[in-house]
């Protein structure tokens, strides 16, 4: 670890925090329908959309209606994306003449993009036509992020309102999130990326002759526009298979900083918007601090592990000075790779600027654990906040009793119904991640996909299901996911990770919204101080350590000890 | 401070013996099904026992180990049952005492209570069990009152020791706030006619027995929510353990089902799962020891959440009687002269006010009764030199005529009127003194000798000593105190200031109380109050915690959700503390239970996989002797910790009246961090013992 590396990390994070707080105010105003700078241009467009879709702007929905709207929107998105992929060979904008996508892969990819996962069992540049990339994938990069933000606001309103039957209007929330937040932010970020050297064209691949005279096909396309929303919307689905490690997606150290900023800023802003909505900025700040600590701990654990290098490689004569550089880009270095890895898995982005598979065991444990936590540091757009709030509810419930009152959060009592819904959401993860991992390990088809034997192979499978369930989408390269078994199970994991989680969250929102707001006193459990931050972190670590201790022990942890003992598989 | 019945000792032998027996009876899976965590433990205990039998028959050599695991799993279940049984046992002893009062009584039912016919006085002997609501029964001296009811006619002294434990008889009469009688109590003198208000089997005593015994115990809302959390965790750990099998197989380790089950039982929250119902029962039991009966566990929980306490001034905050606090002489009178005069004037005044004047004179100026007696014989005698003038509502004056001196004390305007009205000579500083007393919330009492004003006595509502500190403690807990009084706003404000309450309702009517409760509840606060009169009933019902006084009316007792058998309104403060203690104990043990699991992983996971990956021995931070002893030690710790925590579960976590933040910090440290650390030490010690005894 070096001072320069630490400074790089610190400066990037400071940039995020400095912009996230004011952006949070903006997010709040946008989602609550207040006037903003962009209202003059946006308002007519917004109204036109409502007229077109027959949406009554002022008509709010109950949690059931809100959830049904979201599910219907998801189903429609899934079907249209599936058809688009299957028929891309007969549709326009296919300069490279790609075939229609295979059914199981199209199933997996559709689920992947509507759930904000962007798990890619394919190489974008050799599978998807420009039309599929732009009309299908890029559009869903916006919409899946907007869905996350809408859900988060449904839950935010549950806490900011008292005795309310409604949570807002899904269609209005979607429109506002896209129109006033995601589109206006994606445009300048795209342009900045273009300025930093990212291609943006509708051309097909370039044919080039190398110095040795060999022929090389260089894929280009509308990269910058997809790149911007890929990061801002915490999507992570790259134009190229190599994702942000590819020089056309992420050409320089500067673009790397911009991309890290873009993937962290909206999730943090949402947390600040929450503080504003509940009229107590300290509440948002406490959650943001807890998220930052998880993020920073991950960054530095990964940085430390990667900078320490791999003793096995040192033994065979590799210079240990730059750290473990296997699978990393020289232009980013170990520090900014560690930050990117922790940030992309702390959010539900899943973009990579290095191959996580090549990390040291502890370095690889960081992204894996981040995703097992459900991506909450600071989490996907919207998803990070609602994921964290579920954990807050559980932390407050367990420890809140210790102040001698029935637990309440922001004046809302946490009772049997809320506990039931929170536990339902929590259960999705171990059921999906451990269940599918165990099933894959018992099947020959599962084991055949492994790139490595031994504990690393176990990590690959657990990583894949953690990544899809958490709707992250980053891959521990090495596992061949494009098989019928994995296309299907990973697809189902993505679906459950999103919808089986969000429906209880919305039900929880409905339940909290209907409750009275109990006024706070000095006897009330404090949820804004550092004590609460510590408590929340303790609950998160213990709760998740207990779920994944055996799996992690048999994966990265034992691999770490084996590496130190000089054993390989 | 309220009286408290001695707690049944934690080591009360008969209770422990009964509990040990009940622990086995409670193994019935139909009973255990209500407690998912312990139910799961029982099911897997059966499975491991099956493996033990298989191993024993097959002479595999593993039988010793499997047998020990099975035994400790059963102990885990039994210890949990035992904890519940001990808690119940403490309540049962009280229930038995109550049940003895519920003997077969013969009721004297009036055939025609309305007296429409000539059968007006005819009574019919029926068994108490056959009484119906609305029947009227006659109860005479020596009879046991057959049923709960309201007195419609008559007045009697009643021995209520069966329910209150207080042997002094109380007066019950028709009309007013003393008309309710409780079945099982005994009429000592006179007779009453009682209208039955409760079906036999659902009377006050029946309900008390059921509550004390826990027979009708239903999970309280918070207990239910906690059970859901615990069930959720149980499901999570089931998933973890089931999926561990293929993970282990992939890693080259073969795990036996018994070992996986041992891991499962260590992980699922057996500690809190086993103690949860004991905590709830013990909470009710603590209330009962304070002589308060809650009609539901829900009410006890609500008590912990209370934000605002509505307290009656009289009897709760003040002693209830105004007392002399100061003698203020006027004109050229000296204080001693005034004291002597008013002391004489009060000689025949047996009211607390009068007695307090005599007491103050004695204390301040050593003016003693014997000296007064020497001046002229016995008070109230026919001695011509000395005539007591008793207080009358018309004159509002009382006093004493002695040796031609007419000593009078009374309401200021009445005394002035007596000495000459508007034309009377009033010293210049008299008005000032009167005004000062009124302004500070006291009552001025003018004193005159013949037609000369001597001064003023400052009568004051005396705030109970120590009450201000208690209110300060409540404020630290985040609880607002509101004083309810019939006094005028000036008096109320003065006493409120002196007692340190946060708010007061002056000249309060029952409607005011109800309105205040509604207003507070609208603001999202929970209210507790106590009351006894029928006019309190609506407010008692509206309050989140309504404590009715046992001496109160039937209506009040029905409206409240707790009954205080001692009829002591200050108990509200203890009730809140008991509610908080109940919730804290639950939270503390849940936190402790979950935090424990981390250490158990460090014991078991290396033990399971060290054969496949010898490098994992690095995780064996406790340096446990062998794989088998590690697993066994974790299971033993898991079982023993339940027993070790039974006293805490029954006694409750100590409640300190400090703010929530300080309380959280303290408990989080003790039960969270402590829960993380304790098992590392415990498992290591057990491992040493296991090795020393060659158990594994």
Summarize the structure.
The complex is a heterodimer of chains A (569) and B (696). Chain A has helices at residues 3-31, 39-53, 63-86, 103-114, 124-127, 130-160, 170-195, 223-232, 253-277, 281-308, 311-315, 333-346, 361-372, 383-400, 416-442, 444-448, 454-469, 484-513, 530-565, and strands at 206-209, 215-218, 408-409, 412-413. In chain A, strands 1-2 form a two-stranded antiparallel sheet.
Describe it.
The complex is a heterodimer of chains A (569) and B (696). With 569 residues, chain A is mostly helical. Chain A has a domain at 406-564. Chain A has helices at 3-31, 39-53, 63-86, 103-114, 124-127, 130-160, 170-195, 223-232, 253-277, 281-308, 311-315, 333-346, 361-372, 383-400, 416-442, 444-448, 454-469, 484-513, 530-565, and strands spanning 206-209, 215-218, 408-409, 412-413. In chain A, the strands form two sheets. In chain A, strands 1-2 form a two-stranded antiparallel ribbon. Chain A has a two-stranded antiparallel ribbon with strand order 3-4. In chain A, β3 and β4 (412-413) form a beta hairpin. In chain A, α1 (3-31) packs parallel to α12 (333-346) and α17 (454-469) packs across α18. Chain A is globular, with a radius of gyration of 23 Å. The mean pLDDT of chain A is 92. Chain B has 23 helices and 20 strands. In chain B, a hairpin with a 7-residue loop joins β11 (386-389) and β12. In chain B, strands 1, 2, 3, 4, 5, 6 and 7 form a seven-stranded antiparallel sheet that branches. A seven-stranded mixed sheet of chain B has the order 8-20-19-18-9-16-17, with helices on both faces. By secondary structure, chain B is an alpha+beta fold. The interface between A and B is large, with 67 and 73 residues.
């Amino acid at each position: 670890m070096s001072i320069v590396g630490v400074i790089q990390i610190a400066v990037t994070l400071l940039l995020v925090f400095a912009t996230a707080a004011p952006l949070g105010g903006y997010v709040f105003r946008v989602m609550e329908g207040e006037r903003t700078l962009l209202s003059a241009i946006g308002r007519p467009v917004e109204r036109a959309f409502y007229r077109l879709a027959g949406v009554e702007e002022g008509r709010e929905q109950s949690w059931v209606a809100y959830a049904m709207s979201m599910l219907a929107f998801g189903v429609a998105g899934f079907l249209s994306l599936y058809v688009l992929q299957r028929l891309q060979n007969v549709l326009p904008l296919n300069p490279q003449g790609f075939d229609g996508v295979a059914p199981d892969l199209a199933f997996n990819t559709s689920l992947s993009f509507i759930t904000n996962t962007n798990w890619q069992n394919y190489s974008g540049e050799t599978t998807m036509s420009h039309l599929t990339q732009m009309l299908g994938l890029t559009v869903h990069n916006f919409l899946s992020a907007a869905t996350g933000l809408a859900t988060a606001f449904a839950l935010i309103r549950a806490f900011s309102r008292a005795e309310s039957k409604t949570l807002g209007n899904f269609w209005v929330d979607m429109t506002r999130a896209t129109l006033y937040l995601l589109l206006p932010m994606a445009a300048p970020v795209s342009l900045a990326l273009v300025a930093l050297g990212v291609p943006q064209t509708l051309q097909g691949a370039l044919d080039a002759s190398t110095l040795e005279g060999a022929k090389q096909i260089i894929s280009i396309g509308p990269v910058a526009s997809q790149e911007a929303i890929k990061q801002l919307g915490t999507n992570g689905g790259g134009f190229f298979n190599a994702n942000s490690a590819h020089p056309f997606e992420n050409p320089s150290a500067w673009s790397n900083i911009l991309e890290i900023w873009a993937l962290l800023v909206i999730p943090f802003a949402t947390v600040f918007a929450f503080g504003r909505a509940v009229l107590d900025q300290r509440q948002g700040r406490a959650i943001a601090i807890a998220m930052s600590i998880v993020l920073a701990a991950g960054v530095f654990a990964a940085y430390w592990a990667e900078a320490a290098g791999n003793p096995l490689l040192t033994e065979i004569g590799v210079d240990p000075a730059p750290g473990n550089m296997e699978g990393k880009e020289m232009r980013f270095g170990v520090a900014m790779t560690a930050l990117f890895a922790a940030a992309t898995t702390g959010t539900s982005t899943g973009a990579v600027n290095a191959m996580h598979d090549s990390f040291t065991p502890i370095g690889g444990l960081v992204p894996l654990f981040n995703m097992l936590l459900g991506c909450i540091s600071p989490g996907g757009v919207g998803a990070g906040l609602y994921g964290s709030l579920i954990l807050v509810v559980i932390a407050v419930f367990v420890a809140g009793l210790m102040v001698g009152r029935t637990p309440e959060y922001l004046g809302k009592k946490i009772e049997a119904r809320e506990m039931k819904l929170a536990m339902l959401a929590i259960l999705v993860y171990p059921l999906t991640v451990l269940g599918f991992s165990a099933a894959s390990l018992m099947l020959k088809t599962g084991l055949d996909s492994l790139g490595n034997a031994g504990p690393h192979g176990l990590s690959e499978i657990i990583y894949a299901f953690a990544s899809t369930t958490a709707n992250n989408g980053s891959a521990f390269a090495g596992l061949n996911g494009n098989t019928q078994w994995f296309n299907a199970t990973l697809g189902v994991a993505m679906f459950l990770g999103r919808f089986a989680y969000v429906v209880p969250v919305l039900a929880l929102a409905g339940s909290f919204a209907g409750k009275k707001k109990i006024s706070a006193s000095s006897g009330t459990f404090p949820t804004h101080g550092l004590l609460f931050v510590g408590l929340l972190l303790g609950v998160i670590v213990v709760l998740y350590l207990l779920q994944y201790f055996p799996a992690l022990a048999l994966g990265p942890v034992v691999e770490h000890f084996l590496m130190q003992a000089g054993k390989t598989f | 401070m309220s009286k408290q019945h001695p707690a049944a000792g934690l080591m009360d032998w008969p209770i422990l013996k009964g509990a040990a027996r009940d622990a086995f009876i409670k193994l019935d899976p139909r009973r255990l099904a209500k407690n998912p965590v312990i139910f799961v433990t029982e099911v897997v205990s059966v499975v491991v026992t099956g493996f033990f039998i298989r191993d024993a028959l097959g002479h595999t050599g593993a039988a010793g180990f499997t047998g020990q695991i099975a035994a400790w799993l059963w102990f885990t279940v039994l210890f949990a049952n035992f904890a519940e049984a001990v808690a119940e046992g403490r309540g049962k002893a009280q229930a038995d005492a109550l049940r003895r009062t519920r003997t077969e009584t013969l009721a004297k039912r009036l055939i025609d209570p309305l007296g429409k016919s000539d059968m007006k006085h005819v009574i019919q002997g029926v068994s108490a069990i056959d009484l119906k609501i609305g029947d009227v029964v006659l109860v005479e001296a020596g009879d046991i009152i057959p049923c709960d009811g309201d007195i419609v006619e008559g007045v009697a002294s009643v021995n209520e020791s069966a329910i209150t434990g207080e042997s002094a008889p109380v007066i019950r009469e028709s009309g007013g706030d003393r008309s309710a009688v409780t079945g099982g109590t005994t009429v000592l003198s006179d007779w009453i006619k009682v209208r039955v208000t409760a079906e036999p089997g659902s009377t006050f005593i029946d309900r008390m027995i059921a509550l004390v015994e826990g027979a009708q115990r239903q999970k309280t809302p918070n207990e239910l929510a906690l059970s859901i959390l615990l069930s959720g965790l149980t499901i999570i750990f089931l998933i973890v353990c089931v999926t561990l099998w293929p993970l282990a197989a992939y890693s080259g380790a073969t795990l036996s089902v018994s070992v996986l089950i041992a891991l499962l039982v260590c992980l699922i929250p057996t500690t809190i799962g086993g103690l949860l119902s004991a905590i709830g029962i013990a909470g009710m039991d603590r209330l009962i020891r304070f002589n308060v009966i809650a009609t539901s566990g829900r009410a006890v929980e609500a008590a912990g959440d209370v934000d605002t306490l509505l307290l009656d001034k009289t009897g709760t905050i003040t002693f209830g009687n105004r007392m002399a606090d100061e003698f203020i002489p006027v004109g050229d009178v000296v204080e001693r002269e005034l004291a002597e005069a008013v002391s004489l004037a009060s000689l025949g005044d047996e009211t607390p006010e009068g007695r307090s004047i005599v007491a103050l004179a004695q204390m301040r100026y050593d003016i003693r009764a014997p000296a007064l007696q020497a001046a002229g014989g016995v008070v109230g005698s026919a001695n011509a030199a000395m005539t007591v003038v008793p207080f009358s509502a018309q004159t509002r004056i009382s006093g004493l005529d002695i040796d031609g001196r007419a000593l009078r004390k009374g309401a200021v305007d009445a005394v002035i009127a007596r000495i000459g009205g508007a034309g009377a000579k009033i010293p210049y500083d008299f008005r000032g003194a009167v005004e000062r007393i009124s302004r500070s919330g006291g009552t001025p009492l003018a004193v005159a000798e013949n037609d000369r004003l001597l001064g003023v006595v400052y009568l004051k509502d005396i705030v109970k000593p120590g009450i201000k500190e208690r209110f300060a403690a409540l404020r630290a807990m985040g609880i607002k105190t509101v004083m309810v009084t019939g006094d005028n706003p000036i008096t109320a404000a003065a006493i409120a200031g002196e007692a340190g309450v946060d708010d007061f309702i002056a000249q309060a009517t029952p409607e005011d109380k109800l309105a205040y409760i509604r207003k507070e509840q609208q603001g999202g606060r929970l209210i507790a109050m106590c009351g006894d009169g029928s006019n309190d009933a609506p407010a008692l019902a509206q309050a989140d915690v309504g404590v009715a006084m046992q001496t109160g009316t039937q209506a009040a007792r029905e409206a409240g959700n707790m009954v205080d058998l001692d009829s002591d309104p200050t108990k509200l403060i203890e009730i809140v503390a008991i509610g908080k203690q109940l919730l804290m104990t639950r939270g503390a043990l849940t936190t402790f239970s979950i935090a424990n699991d981390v250490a158990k992983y460090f014991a078991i996971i290396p033990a399971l996989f060290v054969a496949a990956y010898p490098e994992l021995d690095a995780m064996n931070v406790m340096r446990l002797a062998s794989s088998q002893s590690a697993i066994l030690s974790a299971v033993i710790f898991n079982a023993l910790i339940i027993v070790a925590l039974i006293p805490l579960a029954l006694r409750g976590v100590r409640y300190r009246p400090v703010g929530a933040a300080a309380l959280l910090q303290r408990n989080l440290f003790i039960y969270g961090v402590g829960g993380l650390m304790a098992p590392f030490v415990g498992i290591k010690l057990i491992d040493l013992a296991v090795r020393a005894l060659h158990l594994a």
